[in-house]
Structure formats: C-alpha cells, structure tokens
Amino acid sequence: MLVLTWKISLRRSVLKQQLVSNASNIMEPVIRINPGASKWDIRQRVWDYIEDKNLANFPRPVHNRIPNFKGAFGACSKVADLQAFAQTVEVKVDPDKPLEGARFAVLQAQKTLLVPTPRLRSGLFNKITPQPGANKEQLRVCSSSQGVKDFSVPVDLDAKVKVDLVVVGSVAVSETGCRIGKGEGFADMEWAMMASMGAVDESTVVVTIVHDCQVLDVPEELMGNHDLTVDYILTPTRVIKTECKLPKPQGIIWSKLDAEKLEKIPILKKLRALEEQAGKDVTLGTASHAAEPGLQANQPKRQPRRRPRRNSQQDTEGEAGQESRREKKGEGEQRARQQPARVRKESRGSGRGDEEGDAGRLAKGRSRRAVREQGPEEGGGEAASQRKLPQSLTTVYLGGIPAGLRVSELKAALRERKAAPLRLTWQGAQHRAFLDYSDPQVADQALEALQGLCLNDHSLQAELAKSQRGQKRPGQRQKPSVAAATSKASPPDTKSDTAQEAEQ
C-alpha cells in the first residue's frame, strides 16, 4: 500500500512538472492554418497530415472520423493523473476508438463510466457495468466498442446523474481550449443535453485527448455559442491546461435544430417536451441553420487528393487490362470471387465510376457494380443481366450520400420509406447511388417518398436520372466496342446470377 501511494504521488509530481514545462515552453504547431480558414479547412488539413505522415491506427482513412492516432492509449492513461480525475465519481467518455484507453482508466479506477449511445439513436448514454471482480483484461474488453455494447445499461433521461468529468475526442484543438470535432455536432449536443438535465455545469471539467499535431491555432472567432470548449488537452508528450475563457453551452439551442434532427434523435423530442412544460422557448430552426456551414462541402473535398494517384494507373491499365480480361475472362471471374479483399484494397478511394471499388467499404456494392459495368467488355453481361429484369427500367439518381454511410443503412432507409428498388447501384466514393424501378409510375412514387431523406445529418438529393439503363451514366467511361465482345455472351450469365445474389 505504501509503495502504491508513493507511485501515485510520484506520477502526480511528474504531471505537475509537465504542466509547468508546458506553460513556459509553448510548442509551435506543426500544422499551419491560413487566415480566414473555416472549420472544414482545418479538419481537412489535420486529416490529410495524419494520413500523409502515417500517424494513425485502424480505422483508416481518418477522414470524417476522430483520428485513432498512434500513442492514443498512452495519452489516455494520463487522465488518471489529473487532480480533477481523483475527485470524480462519474465520468463520461465518448465512444471513439482513440478514447478506449480513457474508458479503461475510468473502469480501472473503479469509477462510474458513462458512454453516449452511438449517434444518440436510443438514448443519451449508457452506464458500463463490468462483472463483479473483473480483472484487468476483462476491463480492457469492457472499454472496447464491443464491450460498451455488451456491458452497458441504459440511463434514462429522468435519472438523476451528476457527471464530474467529461472526455471527448477532437479533430483539432487549440491551447486556449477551442475545439473542433468531426463536424456532426454530437459531442456539443451531448453536453447541451446533459446541461439541460442538470448533469453538468460550467465547473465540470472537460478533457480531450489528441495527437500533438492536432494541437494548433484555432481562431476563437470560429467558435459558436453551441461549441464545447475544453479545460485539459492530453497528448502522447504533453499535458496542457488551457485556462479557456470561453463559456460552455448552457443547454440546447433549439433554434439550431430542425424537425428532421428530432426525427433522427428521438430523445430530443422527450427533452423538448420537458423544456416546453418548463416554459422555455423550444422553437425549432430550419434545416439550413441546423447544418454546420461548410459541412456539405466535405464530400468533394476528399476526392481531388485521391483521384490523381489512381488516374495514372487507370490510364496505363486501360486498354491492356481490358484486352487481358477479354482473353482470360474465366480467370478474371474466378479471381474476383476468390480474392475480394485484394480488389477492395486496390480500389479504395479511387473515385472511378467504372471500376469495382468505388464504394470502398462494402463487398456487396462492389461486386454487383463490377458485374454490371464489365458486362460489355466481357461479352454481353449487361444484356444477360437485363433478361432477369423488366425490359424497360426507370432509374432514379440519389446524390449527396455522406462518406462513411453503409449500403445496408441506405437500403434500410429505402425500405422504411417503401421505396426499395429492383436494383441498387452503389457508388459511394462518388457519394451517389442509382435506383432502378420497374416503370415510371413506381419511380415517381419512390421519388415522392424520398423527398427530404436525411442520413448521417446529410440531406440526400433524389431525382430522375438523366440517362436510363443501357446508356452511359455520369462518371462512367466509354466501354470498348460491344461488337468485339458479343461473341462471348454465355459466361456473363453466371456473373449476372452472382450479381443477383449480391443484391439480395
């Protein structure tokens, strides 16, 4: 016991020295921010830098995520050395991967761990309850994303909760406490909801854990009255006390939300009803106010960095690769079936509309699209696929698909709106999809049902496609002559069957 007390005292002494050292030796940011840069510009610079310098672990790429930087677990362990942590009973830690070490530190210190429900779909947060007498390894499991699911107990909005310390992830943060998240606003909203519940107040300590490169000069003028600021920054090499002067949000600013957001986050409805009963102004804003300026611009910004690297390969592989596929069609089909992982790796982020890997995430979308678009090259696969569908199809274009959205989530949304197509062509890398319906009347009904569709805080655009099946779609390259391929019409029937199975 005496040895343990001595070790704790020694660590706190080292931490105090580190705080003094940080105060006297402010490091120059490695990422320079241009004057007039927006929040999105800063996010993009940080994500690009971390990727270019290979500073992240799984999941990759880090774009549109809280980066899981190398050294995250060690940085997280410093939270237990904070004096504010020693005085806490209940700690709320976000579910991001780089904060897994912080969740473990809370459980190891035998404090109450609260983790927000992912995307606030089914409540505000859950209490993580390890098995009695859990050892260190079992606590590590509980702190993982799967453990959060398996060992959590929902905390109701009416529960009397007092959160003593909050740990959030960040994309960028300044030494003065100005924080920028990934742009979806969940950390800010979680704080506002806890403030409305009385679970947190201005004195509640907020900690963020980032890589050293993520500490940069964030202009204070970019901070809104809904943005959460931080009191401590933990990095692999530093502990920074920000002395932030900006106030934390006092509650939900309803004018920044819209009805669409309330539909996606049911707990907001309940909280709004409670505040309305208390006589507060709960007037909602419009969709344009609810979305952060510049957030919609994130989709095209990622593409220019990735396309040039793949275009050169696309040009060099073009005709020779197509000729090789025509001559060795059987081998190509077998390779596509047996080695899907390699196909996914080679095609990730390519931005090409006529290759297998546009989606970059889901094998189903890739394999089906590859079959449809390789058909003319390999001998009438398109026509073979058409024989299994009505002769005339009406295609709906669905644009504005956010990065990171899974095709399964889109299909679920289509089913909920009773707009499921006969066939879905997924082009996630281009942030779009094509939906094929049996006739124009069914397509019109689907268009009406899809108006106002919003996924992951992004409004999707649904309209009749400019071109129908059998014609060139946007983003597709002109295929080699069909006449040169029609002599090999029978094998693509097998690929068409595979495509049908992938769709189902």
Automatic annotation (TrEMBL):
Gene3D superfamilies: 3.30.70.330, NagB/RpiA/CoA transferase-like (3.40.50.10420). The keyword Nucleotide-binding does not apply. Residues 287-388, 465-504 are annotated as: Disordered. One of its GO terms (cellular component) is cytoplasm. Residues 322-336, 343-361 have a biased composition (Basic and acidic residues). PROSITE patterns: RRM. InterPro entries: FTHF_cligase (IPR002698), FTHF_cligase-like_sf (IPR024185), NagB/RpiA_transferase-like (IPR037171), Nucleotide-bd_a/b_plait_sf (IPR012677), RBD_domain_sf (IPR035979), RRM_dom (IPR000504). This is Methenyltetrahydrofolate synthase domain-containing protein. The lineage of its organism: Eukaryota, Metazoa, Chordata, Craniata, Vertebrata.
